[in-house]
Structures are given as structure tokens and as C-alpha cells.
Write a structure and sequence with these properties.
heterodimer; A: alpha/beta; Beta-Lactamase; 5-stranded antiparallel beta sheet; about 55% helix; B: Rossmann fold; transmembrane (chain A); receptor (chain A); Signal_recog_particl_SRP54_hlx (chain A)
Chain lengths: ~1000, ~290
């Protein structure tokens, strides 16, 4: 059924396009002939005339004719090819952006569908507006369309019934979908059990909404028996096809709003939703107190805005005007330190303005967390400072949003807050950010306060409504902390700022007594806690807005939608294009982007808190309903003030899933990799496949699985939200980002220059000690010998301390090495290399200490301490190693690991590190591994994953790599080569 | 040629069509290539025309960048990406128009500076190496490491680029570290660096570079005056002016402050930059306006 309809749909839409195409090509060819080919021929002809020889002249003319023809035709075909390419480009764009649903309130395109079943009576003069009348008639034609009814046989019965009703003296209207859209947000609560539903209408592209429709029928009648009749006949049938039906029965006699609502309350089939509908109708009708039959029909129910009139104006047509920004009415309670900075290091905005003391901490955090891209965590807890740092990376504008607060606060909404701030900031300063105009000041305080208060308010609401607070659990924070949070937050605010929010709070009509009480309490506590607050800090972590957006959206409603995506065919997309050409032609890339962005801030808010809002909304409306019945119309103003705002939020939620979902799995996804014409903003969805492949690839290259996972996460967070330019493919982008990340991981964050440090040690008249440790058989002694060779080559005297008192032959092995090396460096009378050994079975730490002392006496420059190999799980041996290191405090502790290991590498290196930390002596800062020696690097071909695994887990550089059996085979790591090998 | 024409004339339909198609494909292809080329060309940022700001982390590059390009002192944090901008150099002589100079600020973080440095080194026309005078004693090894890289850089040497070593943060320098002290310190370090670098372990699979020592060959100690192919100059200064309060103004965007900030921002900092960065401006002027 659906398929049939789709085909017919596509036919109706494609065929005119093709006709149009052929026609335009025809005309353009004609044009080409007239204005290019003919003149060219004439020119050649003239040349021909000049030529004396007849034959040559003739041939020249022929030649010219052909050449011009070829030229012209080639141009024509070029033109055609271009056209096709452009078409592809457009289709491609559609498949990516996939704006199925544009909020009709905000859009001029009128994407909304109005299915109207309108009976027009003879007395046409009832309609003052001719255009409206035409509109009605046109819509009626739809109903009369037999084809349509055949295609949708499922509904035919229903429509028959509707016609039946029409024959009666009833007027039935299905609410236009824009109203549906506006209240769609409620439906997440209403219809949470159902998945997607798709509308098919002949004149419109297929239309997907992610909720089942509730068919809202407004039946106006003057007779109560008629009402009962309709109900009894209509409802059972309709409910068979629709997930839920909300029938609003209006009595024409009751022209007063309040009376109408009263009836609705009683007649609504789903009583539990009555409050919502009441609220909705209340919302609509309260704007039209002058509500009269005809007028109301034409304005509210018939989408009767005259053409060109903006929808916003429609809402401005209120007796109770909406505040410009509804959030203004909300109060501010929490103040944290917040910084916004672009990647290039300038602080664009921060609060409090005296945040200078945090800069050091933040710098530290940037260094640690952001640059290394450790996973995609948004949170960073400084090990030694009492602060939490949340950060968020905006890839599109290369901004970082950093939020810092005290650990004890445990703010549950930090992520939400950052998201919101990000959206707002982007919206506010989009233009400046795009051109890189950082040299202005960014007055953001007002918005900041607003957002803060808004988020706070939600928290409060959720607290009041004692239902399961879903979004809290999502952010895995405990609810009891919320109160503390708000208090603490207030403390941070400085006096001036504090006063403002309070005024706001009191003026806020929404605030209930309970809330005010809480605030009072908080104020008291503020004073006590003021001192503590001074040390707020910020740290950065990366995350992308898009990803978070998508993720959040997905969590709630996407999965279901995705199920249906594959069913969307090319035809549908074509039809979608047919419907939306205005959008594309009117809004080229730059223009198009602002549009969705405008919606984003609210969307995020709405999606993340949808459940919460819904709960609170219900409560409000219930309250309102009660009030209204009691007080009559006068009470209207209060609820209106907040209702529209929440309504708006919800409207936007309709959008977000449809936009983000895209036709990811559709036919065009194959085309995605080549982005020819459209510049496109990457989303996490787009990246998923590529990143997944990349992860597999990394694992295949011997990178430990969880390390690969984390690296891929951080790469995808770095990429999401970036705009892909023309001629840039996704794969190259991923590869490039991956390459950057890998190189960054492999690049040492600390300068390691052993020779230079040896010079320092020489000046201090002490030997420079290097300890080698690692598991059995990785090549500690061999590489120690290589290092000794290298150092001796630089005229340094080396003492090797044989602290492997465990394995048979260990000392002898070293002795052999020493003998060999001394043979090589035999030009001086003094042996360059010596072995210090005390046989087997002795305490290694003691021998090392003796060796260092010996070296000091004998003026050795470097002491290389060879330790016994041990497994990372061997507790006693690890304790012994820790003792050796902490007693002797060598200048450099090198972990020797072989490049052959995969997942094991992480385990080894972390356990060694941990053992050193755990077994540190009290009151001394624990020594950890300073660097890594990667051995057997020549044996692994391009499976160089161990290098990444080890550096990533320990964050320590690879000091040497061993690439062979000879003494010379000691090299430093070439990050580029390794990276290339990994990506190969 | 005549033959060709004739044969074409004889067998018209069979010959022309494939030709046309080939031609049209060629045109499409060529157009795409041209577009692609144009795009790529746009990407590379002004070869050999830029002023590079280098230096270790937290030495004040970004602040200097702000001062040069915007005339503002902004609060900065560790940079994670390069800054690109352009400064307007006003010339004293009236016959010359004002000069626009592109400035690139390379982050000092060890992890990323190598990459950014390599991608941008070809754009350099002059380099300012920023040193934090207050911490130079502790960081002299890292600073000299970086400085060695720059002095050793082949492209710079070939082009004989001018290098300005700016001893920054002189406004908060309490230890009386003068240019001369810093210079000596760096020379000592570089002398050592010269030795150790030459004998350090080879890079795995790396290209063996010609040992092209900085400084004078055969001479035991390194001196900046020995560097012939890069014109090194030392100046002191401070990117941050005396007006530290402007920080607070800039970020405290309460309404009242706002307007004041916008009004006064330019004048205040302009006047100030004259004092602290005069030498830098002189140097830039010298290079760009000969």
C-alpha cells in the first residue's frame, strides 16, 4: 500500500521535473545554436572567402562547420552534465539535511499540511476573505479526489465516514498540522508507546513524524444529540486507525471560551490528557477572547492566515503579548565560573570577571585533558585540586566551553548548562565567530544569567514534582545534591549579581511559596559559604555540540525513527525536494545554517529535559485548569506567560529528531563520501561508520582494544560539528584527524634529552642514573647495552649495575656486553664501561645504591641499573622494584616493553606504574615511569599498535626503540612513521 | 589536415558524437580540477609573507598576537590551535600606504607545536621568538631546545629570515634579568645543545640530515653573533601593558561597563602599546618597510 502510494507520489513529482529538464535543455541548445554556432560559422566563412583556392576554401568551411558543431555540442553536453551533477548535489544535500519538518510557526515555507474537511455552505458571503474561501475549496478538492481515496484504502472507511458527517450539518475540521506540531511535545508523554507514523498526502511529500498522529477533530454542532451520534459512530471506527483520537466537541452556541473548555473537559475521550488539551486550547483561545464562530474558524482552525503574513505576527496578535524572551522571567540561582574560549587561546568571555586565579589550573587542564584528547569525557577532575571541570568543544567555531566548580557541589546539570550556554553563545555571536572577530567584547552576562536561571528552574521543578526524575539519573548525580548546588552556586555570585537574581525571583510569578522558602534558606547559607567559593576553577574537556545533540535526541526518539529510514526511497527524497526547492534556492549554504541553529538552543534544552518539562507542564496546566474554573477569565494572564515558552520548546523537539536523523542508512549514504557541492556539517551519525572502521583498523594494527576505542571516541568528538567543505571527503577528514591525534599522542609532552641532563649531573658531581625495568624477556639487558654503547660513544663513562640477582646468567650476560663494548671503545687507557656486580641472591636495591656510590667515587658519568624481569602481577617482586627505585631515586626510570604485545601492553605498563605508586614510601612523591623503551620494533612490520597503547596509557614518551640485534640498533621513535604505519 | 576534414565530412554522424562526448567530459574534468586547485591554493596561507610568533608555552605569544592584530590585551589561556590574523602597519611616511602583515601564532605546547610549526614554517617572512623573562632560568633548556630547532631549520636558513627574540614580561620582571643575561644564558645552553644534538640517537626511519651546525663551525662556544644566515636580534618588552585593569573591564560585561569598554578599549590600549612594544614594532617596520 505504502509502496504504491510512494510510487505514484514519485511519478507525479518526477515526471514534471523531467519534462522541465528536457525543455530547458532544448531551449538552451537552440540558444547555443543561434548565438554561438551561427556567428562562429559566419566568421569561418569569412575566412574562407578570403582564401583564394576554391578547394581549400570549401574544406575550410566544412571544417569550420564541424568544429563549431563539435564545440557547441560539447558545451551543451557539458551543460547537461553539470546540471546532472548539480542535481545530484542537491539530492545529496537533501539526504543529509533532511528537514522533514520545519516549524510552521517560524517558517515562511508553510511546510505544514492542512487537511481540511470543510463544508462550504451556500452563503459564501460568510467569508469575508476571498482567499480563504479559495483555500477551502481547494482543500475540498483533495477530499473529492478518487485516486487519493483509492491509494489510501486503509483510511477510506474513515473518510467515508467523514463525508457522511459532512453531509450532515456538521462542520468537521482536522486541525492543521502546525497546531499539531506545536503540541507535539506533549505527545511524547501521550504516545510514548508508539513509534513513528507517516502521513501520505497526494500533494505533499511523504511526511514523517515520530509519533502516531492523534487525530484531532473539531466538530462543531449546535445540537447535543448530534454530538452523541457522532461520537458513537465515529469513535470506534477512527480509533481503529489512529493511535489516539482527541475529539474536541464544540458547541456553537457557546461562544465563550470558558464554556467551551468546560465541555471539552467532559467530552474528551482520554480524560487523563484533558488537562493538556485544556491547556492547549486555553492557550489558543485565550488569544482570541473575541472568539466568534467564523473568525475563530478562519484563524485558528483553518490556518487562515492570508498569504505572506508571517506566523510570528499571528502570535503577536495577542491581547496578552508574549515576553520577548520568556526566559527573562525566570530567576537565577547558581553562579559558577564559566569561560568561553576559542581553540586559539583567547578568552572570549568569562565569569566571574576576576577569574584570573584559575588560569593556571585551567592551563594545566587544557594541557592534560584537551590536548591529549583522552577519550571523549567531558569532565576532568584535577587530582590534587578540589574542583570539577566540565568542558565542551565546539568544533564548528573552534570554541571550548569550560565550567569549573567545587567538587563538593556535584552539580547535576553541568552538561545541560554547558550545552545551553554553548547554543546561546553561538547564536549570539555567530557572525563574529565566523569571521574570527575575536577582538570585541562579548557581553554575555544577561544570557548567561538567563540560562542559568532557566536550568535552575527546571531543577526546581523536577524537585517539586516528586516523580522519577529521569534526566537526573541520566547524568548520574544524586538528587539530594541539588539543593547544595544551588546554595553553593549563589555563593559564588558576587554581591551585585546576587541582588539581581533575587529581584527576578521574587517578581517571578511562577515561584511558589515553597520555592521562596527554599531561597530564603539558601540565602542564609550563602553567607556562611561565601568564603569557600573563591576557588572556583575551570578546566576544559572536549565534546561537540552536535554529538551531544544527536545523542540526546537519539536517546529519546531516534531509534524508532531510524528503523523506518531505510524505507524512504529515492522517490520520496525526490518528492521531498520537489516540495522544498524554495528552501534550497532561497537559502544557500550560509543562509541555511543559521536557520537550524536558531532552533538549536531550545531544542537541546527541550530534548534533554523533555521528560522533566512534561511533568512540570502537566502540573501547571492542572493548576491552571483549577484556577480558571474558579476564577473565571481574569486568571488567564498568569499561565499564559509561561505556557507559550514551554510550548515553543516542545515544538522544536519535533524538529530535532527529524533533522538529526537524516537518511543515514538510505541509498545516498554511499554518495556521502564524496562531498562535491554541498558543504556539510558532520554529525556523530555520519562519523560512526568511518570511525568504526578506523577502530577495527587500529585493533588490527595491534592497538589495545580499549585504547583504540578511546582514541576513536576522541577523534569523533573532535570531528563532529565540523563543516565539510566541497571536495573534501569524510574519509580523508577522519584520517587526518586520526593522524593528528596519533602524532599528538606519540609526541612527548616533556623534553627528554639524556645527554643534556647528564651534563647537569656532571656539574653537580654525581652520576646520572637510569633504571631499566620490565617483564621477563623483553630485552632489558640488550637494550641497556645499546644505551651504554651510545653513551660511551659520546665520551661518557658508564657503569652498569647488575641488579638482576635472580636469573641465572644475567650477570655473565652483562659481563660479556661490557667486554665487547670495551673492545670497541678501547682508545682510552681507562675502561669506558664497567660492570658493578655483587653476585646473585642479594638485595637489588642495595646493590644499586652501592653502584651509584661507586660511580660517584670513580667519576662515572652514567649508571645504568639493570633489574630482574618480573611479571606485572608478581606482588613481592614489584614491591622490591618499587623499593629499588625509591631508595635510589634514579634520574630516569625506563620501562622496557616489547612491541609484540597487544592488549597486554596496557596491563603491563599500568601495573608497573601502579606498583611504583602504591609502594612508594610515605611522605615522598611517588616516582613513576619516565619513559618507555620499545624493543623488537623490527619484528612487527606495521603492527606498531603497542607504541600507541603504551604512550596513551602512561602518557610517557617512547625514549628509544630497539630495532635490531646490534649495538647500533637503537633509535628514537619517529612519530610520523609510526602514524603512517598505523593508518596504512 | 585536409584529409582529416574530408573524412569527417564523409562520415559525419559517427565521428562527431564521440568526439563531442570526450570533449565535454574533458571540459567537466578540467573545470573540476581547476576548482579543486583553486580551493587548495586558497588553503595555503600566504607563502613567505607572514610573521610567525613562536615560543614555549605560557610565554605570551597569544597576548602579543592580540596586541599586534587587535591592539587589545585579552586574557589568554593555553592555545590549542594556531591563531591567524593580520596587523596593519602604519607607516610614518605619507607616500606609502599602510601595510597589512599576516601574523601566525603557533601554540607552544610541546605536543602540537611541532605539527603547527612544520605546516606554517613556509609562510614565514620573519619570526618573533617570545621568551618569558621571569621563568627563563628554569626553562632555559626547553627554550633553547625550541630556539635550536628554529635556528637549525633549513628553510629559515636558506631564506635568511630575520629572527627577533623578544624577552617578554619585562613589566613583572623583578629579578633584573636583562637582555644580556638572557642572551648569555641561551648561548650557554645552545653551546651544550649543539654538542648533544649532534650525538643524539638517530630517528628511526628518519632522514639523515646534513649536520649543519648552527653557529660558527669549529668554535667551541655558540654565540648569536656567529649565526650568519639568520639575523638574530634581541629586544625586551612586554605584551601586557601597564593597564592590567583593562582585563577586568573587558570581561565584566555588565551593561554599564560594556559601553565604556567599547568606547575606551581602542584608545587605551593603543596608547599603551606604544611604550611596551615599541621595539617590536620598530623591528617589524624595518623588515616590511625597508
Amino acid at each position: 500500500m505504502n509502496r504504491q502510494h510512494m510510487i505514484s507520489c514519485s511519478q507525479t513529482i518526477i515526471s514534471p521535473i523531467i519534462h522541465e529538464l528536457i525543455f530547458s535543455i532544448d531551449t538552451s541548445l537552440e540558444y547555443l545554436y543561434k548565438y554561438i554556432e551561427l556567428p562562429l560559422q559566419n566568421i569561418f566563412y569569412c575566412f574562407g572567402n578570403i582564401s583564394s583556392c576554391y578547394f581549400r576554401r570549401r574544406s575550410l568551411i566544412e571544417f569550420s562547420r564541424h568544429s563549431t558543431q563539435i564545440l557547441v555540442q560539447s558545451y551543451a553536453i557539458t551543460f547537461l552534465l553539470y546540471f546532472i551533477l548539480l542535481l545530484f548535489g542537491h539530492l545529496f544535500t537533501i539526504s543529509i539535511q533532511n528537514h522533514y519538518f520545519i516549524d510552521p510557526f517560524l517558517s515562511n515555507n508553510r511546510q505544514c499540511i492542512n487537511i481540511k474537511f470543510v463544508r462550504i455552505y451556500d452563503n459564501e458571503h460568510d467569508f469575508e476573505n476571498i482567499r480563504l474561501k479559495d483555500n477551502f475549496i481547494r482543500e475540498n478538492v483533495i477530499i473529492g479526489d478518487q485516486v487519493y481515496r483509492k491509494n489510501i484504502s486503509n483510511y477510506s472507511q474513515l473518510y467515508e465516514l467523514l463525508h457522511l458527517l459532512e453531509d450532515d450539518h456538521y462542520m468537521i475540521c482536522q486541525r492543521s498540522l502546525y497546531i499539531y506540531a506545536r503540541f507535539h511535545a506533549y505527545s511524547s508523554l501521550l504516545h510514548s508507546n508508539y513509534s513513528q507514523f507517516r502521513f501520505f498526502l497526494p500533494n505533499y511529500p511523504s511526511f514523517t513524524i515520530d509519533q502516531p498522529p492523534f487525530l484531532d477533530l473539531c466538530i462543531h454542532t449546535s445540537n447535543h444529540t448530534h454530538l452523541e451520534q457522532i461520537k458513537s459512530r465515529f469513535l470506534p471506527l477512527a480509533s481503529h486507525y489512529y493511535a489516539s483520537i482527541n475529539v474536541f466537541l464544540f458547541d456553537f452556541n457557546f461562544t465563550q471560551v470558558s464554556l467551551t473548555l468546560y465541555i471539552l473537559n467532559n467530552e474528551s475521550i482520554h480524560l487523563e490528557r484533558s488537562s493538556i488539551h485544556t491547556g492547549w486550547l486555553y492557550d489558543i483561545y485565550s488569544r482570541f477572547h473575541f472568539f466568534k464562530y467564523n473568525y475563530a474558524l478562519s484563524t485558528v482552525l483553518f490556518d487562515g492566515l492570508s498569504v505572506g503574513q508571517h506566523f510570528i505576527d499571528y502570535f503577536d496578535y495577542l491581547y496578552v503579548p508574549l515576553p520577548a524572551d520568556p526566559l527573562l522571567a525566570l530567576n537565577e540561582m547558581v553562579q559558577q565560573a564559566l569561560l568561553i574560549l576559542p581553540l586559539c587561546g583567547l578568552v572570549l568571555w568569562c565569569v566571574p570577571s576576576t577569574a584570573t586565579q584559575f588560569i593556571k589550573i585551567v592551563n594545566n587542564a587544557i594541557d592534560k585533558a584537551v590536548l591529549q584528547g583522552q577519550g571523549s569525557a567531558q569532565k576532568w577532575v584535577a587530582p590534587l585540586s578540589p574542583h570539577h571541570i566540565h568542558y565542551k568543544l565546539d568544533n564548528e567555531f573552534e570554541l571550548v566551553f569550560i565550567l569549573g566548580y567545587q567538587k563538593t557541589l556535584n552539580i547535576s546539570y553541568a552538561d545541560k548548562f554547558l550545552n545551553e550556554i554553548q547554543k546561546r553563545f553561538r547564536d549570539l555571536y555567530k557572525d563574529d565567530l565566523t569571521i574570527g572577530g575575536f577582538n570585541r567584547s562579548f557581553p554575555f552576562r544577561v544570557t548567561y544569567n538567563k540560562v542559568l536561571s532557566d536550568i535552575e528552574q527546571e531543577d526546581e521543578d523536577a524537585k517539586k514534582v516528586k516523580r522519577a526524575p529521569r534526566s537526573y539519573e541520566e547524568s548520574d548525580k544524586k538528587q539530594k545534591t541539588v539543593k547544595i548546588v544551588t546554595k553553593k552556586g549563589d555563593v559564588t555570585t558576587d554581591e551585585k549579581k546576587k541582588k539581581k537574581p533575587k529581584q527576578m525571583a521574587t517578581s517571578n510569578k511562577q515561584t511558589i511559596n515553597a520555592v521562596q522558602k527554599e531561597e530564603l534558606d539558601e540565602e542564609e547559607q550563602e553567607e556562611q559559604e561565601k568564603e569557600e567559593i573563591n576557588n572556583d576553577e575551570e578546566k576544559p574537556i572536549e565534546e561537540t555540540k552536535d554529538e551531544s545533540l544527536v545523542n540526546q535526541g537519539e536517546k529519546e526518539c531516534l531509534p524508532l525513527e531510524e528503523v523506518q529510514q531505510p524505507t524512504l526511497t529515492v522517490a520520496e527524497k525526490l518528492s521531498a525536494m520537489g516540495k522544498k526547492p524554495g528552501l534550497f534556492t532561497k537559502a544557500p549554504v550560509t543562509k541555511a545554517s543559521p536557520k537550524p541553529e536558531k532552533g538549536k538552543p531550545r531544542k537541546v534544552l527541550a530534548t534533554s529535559n523533555a521528560s522533566k518539562i512534561d511533568i512540570s507542564t502537566i502540573d501547571y496546566s492542572k493548576d491552571k485548569g483549577g484556577e480558571k474554573v474558579g476564577n473565571g477569565q481574569t486568571t488567564i494572564t498568569t499561565p499564559i506567560a509561561d505556557r507559550p515558552e514551554q510550548g515553543d520548546l516542545k515544538t522544536m523537539t519535533v524538529e530535532s529528531p527529524s533533522i538529526t536523523s537524516g537518511l543515514v542508512d538510505g541509498f545516498w549514504s554511499k554518495l556521502k563520501k564524496v562531498n562535491v557541492f554541498a558543504s556539510k556539517t558532520l554529525t556523530a551519525d555520519d562519523l560512526r561508520t568511518g570511525i568504526e572502521a578506523m577502530r577495527e583498523h587500529l585493533i588490527a594494527k595491534n592497538v589495545a582494544a580499549d585504547v583504540a576505542e578511546k582514541i576513536c571516541e576522541s577523534v569523533s568528538t573532535k570531528l563532529a560539528g565540523k563543516t565539510l567543505g566541497s571536495f573534501e571527503s569524510l574519509t580523508t577528514n577522519i584520517r587526518q584527524a586520526m593522524r593528528d591525534t596519533l602524532v599528538m599522542i606519540l609526541t612527548p609532552k616533556r623534553r627528554i634529552d639524556i645527554l643534556r641532563d647528564v651534563v647537569d649531573a656532571q656539574q653537580a658531581r654525581r652520576p646520572y642514573a637510569i633504571t631499566f625495568c620490565g617483564v621477563n624477556g623483553v630485552g632489558k639487558s640488550t637494550n641497556l647495552a645499546k644505551v651504554a654503547y651510545w653513551l660511551s660513544g659520546n665520551d661518557l663513562r658508564v657503569l652498569i649495575a647488575g641488579c638482576d640477582t635472580f636469573r641465572a646468567g644475567a650477570i655473565e650476560q652483562l659481563l660479556t656486553h661490557v667486554r665487547h663494548l670495551n673492545n670497541i671503545f678501547n682508545e682510552k687507557n681507562m675502561p669506558m664501561i664497567e660492570l658493578y656486580q655483587r653476585g646473585y641472591g642479594k638485595d637489588a636495591a642495595g646493590i644499586a645504591a652501592e653502584a651509584i656510590n661507586y660511580a660517584k667515587d670513580k667519576k662515572f658519568d652514567v649508571v645504568l641499573i639493570d633489574t630482574a624481569g618480573r611479571m606485572q602481577n608478581d606482588e613481592p617482586l614489584m614491591i622490591a622494584l618499587a623499593k629499588l627505585i625509591h631508595v635510589n631515586n634514579p634520574d630516569l626510570v625506563l620501562f622496557v616493553g616489547e612491541a609484540l604485545v597487544g592488549n597486554e601492553a596496557v596491563d603491563q605498563v599500568t601495573k608497573f606504574n601502579q606498583a611504583l605508586i602504591d609502594n612508594a614510601r610515605l611522605h615522598s612523591s611517588p616516582r613513576v615511569i619516565d619513559g618507555i623503551v620499545l624493543t623488537k620494533f623490527d619484528t612487527i612490520d606495521d603492527k606498531v599498535g603497542a607504541a600507541i597503547s603504551m604512550t596513551y596509557t602512561t602518557d610517557k614518551p617512547i625514549v628509544f626503540v630497539g630495532i635490531g640485534q646490534k649495538y647500533q640498533d637503537l633509535k628514537t621513535l619517529n612519530a610520523d612513521v609510526v602514524t603512517e604505519a598505523l593508518l596504512k | 589536415m585536409d584529409k582529416n576534414v574530408n573524412s569527417e565530412f564523409v562520415d559525419e554522424s559517427s565521428q562527431i558524437f564521440p568526439l563531442t562526448i570526450i570533449l565535454s567530459f574533458l571540459v567537466v574534468f578540467v573545470t573540476i580540477v581547476i576548482l579543486w586547485w583553486a580551493k587548495n591554493r586558497h588553503k595555503s596561507f600566504r607563502r613567505g609573507e607572514c610573521l610567525l610568533l613562536c615560543g614555549t608555552s605560557n610565554s605570551g605569544k597569544t597576548l602579543l598576537f592580540c596586541r599586534l592584530t587587535m591592539g587589545l590585551a585579552k586574557r589568554t589561556l593555553t592555545s590549542m590551535a594556531i591563531n591567524k590574523g593580520s596587523m596593519i602597519l602604519e607607516t610614518s611616511s605619507t607616500d606609502r600606504p599602510t601595510k597589512k602583515i599576516h601574523v601566525i601564532d603557533i601554540p607552544g605546547n610541546l605536543r602540537i607545536r611541532q605539527r603547527d610549526f612544520n605546516t606554517n614554517k613556509n609562510s614565514a617572512k620573519a619570526i618573533i621568538f617570545v621568551i618569558d623573562s621571569t621563568t627563563i632560568k628554569e626553562e632555559s633548556k626547553d627554550v633553547s631546545d625550541y630556539l635550536y630547532d628554529i635556528l637549525h631549520e633549513k628553510t629559515f636558513r636558506q631564506q635568511r629570515l630575520p629572527l627577533l627574540i623578544l624577552c617578554n614580561k619585562q613589566d613583572i620582571n623583578n629579578d633584573n634579568i636583562t637582555i644580556q643575561t638572557i642572551r648569555n644564558l641561551l648561548e650557554n645552553e645552545l653551546t651544550m645543545k649543539r654538542k648533544t644534538r649532534a650525538s643524539s640517537v638517530d630517528v628511526h626511519q628518519g632522514k639523515t640530515e646534513l649536520i649543519n651546525d648552527i653557529g660558527q663551525l669549529g668554535k667551541e662556544t655558540f654565540e648569536f653573533s656567529d649565526v650568519k644566515d639568520i639575523k638574530v636580534e634581541f629586544v625586551d618588552g612586554s605584551a601586557l601593558g601597564t593597564e592590567k585593569k583593562s582585563f577586568a573591564d573587558h570581561y565584566d560585561d555588565d551593561d554599564a561597563n560594556n559601553e565604556k569598554d567599547i568606547d575606551s578599549g581602542g584608545d587605551e590600549t593603543d596608547a599603551d602599546s606604544g611604550a611596551n612594544l615599541n621595539k617590536v614594532y620598530d623591528w617589524i617596520e624595518k623588515i616590511w618597510i625597508k
